[in-house]
TrEMBL record:
MF terms in GO: L-serine ammonia-lyase activity; threonine deaminase activity
Gene3D superfamilies reported in the protein's UniProt record: 3.40.50.1100
Any Gene Ontology biological process: L-threonine catabolic process
Organism of this sequence: Myiagra hebetior
A Pfam family of this chain: PALP
UniProt KW keywords: Lyase, Pyridoxal phosphate
Co-factor requirement: pyridoxal 5'-phosphate
Name assigned to this protein: L-serine deaminase
InterPro entries the record matches: ACT_dom, ACT_ThrD-II-like, Ser/Thr_Dehydratase, TrpB-like_PALP, TrpB-like_PALP_sf
């Protein structure tokens, strides 16, 4: 957590462990920054302000050959695990700073958590967003109780404006980083999971740019049981954490996709504290494809009735992709940390996931334009128990013989095997059937 204001001296007591940006923190000093006692203190202090979310046995266990327990952090009030770190930080602020207020500059899960918990603690809170921010996000922050101001066309514009307001009015400018206070709050997830699921063999966390949850929870779990395997999962498109661990310092100037689908998975905002904790305590970091994340979102929606975003689904995606075969037969907990997916993206994600999972397919074929031929095609689809989603007929631009019609059909099937059966049945009757590849 980066703290920037003209009143930084007010935080000396609460945030004395914050590393200086210009200094390199050793593993020894890093270990002092976040102790098990700090995480326990955070858990006691925030216990009535955040949900103790369930860590439940999943029906996906049989499908992937292991006992899977899902820690459902998306059930927090703002839909994100970041409430834990934010609440502990806000409760640690001196009273005079709480009276003056705090300010943030983004529409992220972190900002929404600040908006909600600052309002609950009666701390004046301001959220600065750029003009391109989704209206739904702006509305949500206002409903949480924040004063939301649209300024500038880019995130950098809103950040500069927020800093200026902080300097002029004495607000505390908060930007997500990896202070000891913030990591201790996030680390309470590890404490809860250890209590909820006995004899854990491994725990899977989202990683990527914001690996505070991974680092903080690893500190708690490794203290309680050094034999628990801690695994981080990030996107193949931007393996920021793996590159940083290899280089020995936070990677800079990474080309990250700013699409809202990825959220914090593609960020580069973690600092040396989280990185060194990760390097010391995390056993393995793996990367998954976008396709694996989409299918993971589909599995969670179908089997758990859980609507999550990419950050929430990326941990399970490592199991979906078969990246962790060593966990077969083990007791594994997966943190589902975020559920803030915009509605228009949800529709697109589910449509893509069904196609990737061979559950929706499209084909085209040419039949004679005579009464009864279309009925025969539909009879085959009905016999094969394929559900027709869309069907189009093209007569004008058909390049084959006259008096024929090209039929373009989109159907839903049960799975890959069912799709193959349908394809064989159609090729037997219509040898020139063309399937649209993914």
């Amino acid at each position: 957590m980066k703290i920037v204001s003209r009143n930084e001296e007010l935080l000396r007591d609460a945030l004395s462990c914050l590393p200086q940006p210009s200094s390199r923190t050793s593993l020894t000093s890093c270990n002092k920054l976040i102790r098990f006692e700090d995480i326990s203190a955070a858990a006691f202090k925030i216990q009535y302000g955040v949900q103790k979310t369930p860590c439940m046995y999943s029906r996906l266990s049989k499908q992937y050959g292991m006992d899977i327990y899902l820690k459902k952090e998306f059930l927090q009030y703002t839909g994100s695990v970041k409430e834990r770190g934010v609440l502990y930080l806000l409760m640690s602020l001196p009273q005079d700073q709480q009276r003056k207020g705090v300010i943030v500059a983004s529409d992220s899960n972190f900002s929404m958590a600040v908006a909600y918990h600052a309002s609950e603690l009666r701390i004046p809170v301001f959220v600065i967003v750029c003009t391109s921010t989704a209206p739904a996000r702006v509305k949500m922050c206002r409903e949480y109780g924040a004063m939301v101001i649209s300024y500038g066309t880019t995130a950098k514009d809103s950040q500069v404006h927020a800093r200026r307001l902080a300097q002029e009015n004495g607000y505390l400018y908060l930007e997500e980083e990896d202070s000891a206070v913030y990591l201790s709050g996030l680390g309470t997830v590890g404490l809860e999971m250890y209590e909820q699921v006995p004899k854990l063999d491994a725990v899977i966390f989202p990683a990527g740019g914001h690996c505070g949850l991974l680092a903080g929870s690893a500190a708690a779990l490794k203290h309680l049981n050094p034999h628990i395997s801690i695994i981080g999962v990030e996107s193949e498109s931007f393996p920021v954490l793996q590159q940083s661990l290899k280089a020995g310092h936070p990677a800079e100037d990474q080309a990250c996709n700013n699409h809202h689908f990825y959220g914090d998975v593609s960020g580069v905002c973690f600092g040396s504290n989280s990185l060194q904790l990760t390097g010391k305590l995390v056993d393995k970091v793996v990367a998954v494809r976008e396709e694996d994340i989409l299918i993971s979102m589909l599995r969670l929606l179908e089997y758990e009735r859980a609507t999550v975003d990419a950050e929430g689904a990326i941990g399970l995606a490592a199991l979906v992709a078969g990246k962790l075969p060593e966990l077969k037969g083990k007791r594994v907990a997966v943190v589902i940390c975020s559920g803030n997916l915009e509605l228009h993206l949800l529709q697109q994600c589910i449509a893509h996931a069904l196609t990737l999972d061979n559950r929706v397919c499209r084909f085209s074929l040419v039949i004679s334009d005579c009464p009864g031929d279309m009925s025969k095609l539909l009879e085959i689809l009905a016999r094969e128990e394929a559900r027709v989603l869309d069907i189009k007929q093209e007569r004008t631009f058909v390049t084959s013989e006259l008096f024929t019609v090209e039929v373009i059909c989109t159907v839903e099937t049960r799975d890959k095997i069912h799709t193959a059966q349908l394809r064989n049945a159609l090729l037997e009757r219509y040898p020139r059937t063309v399937w649209t590849e993914r």
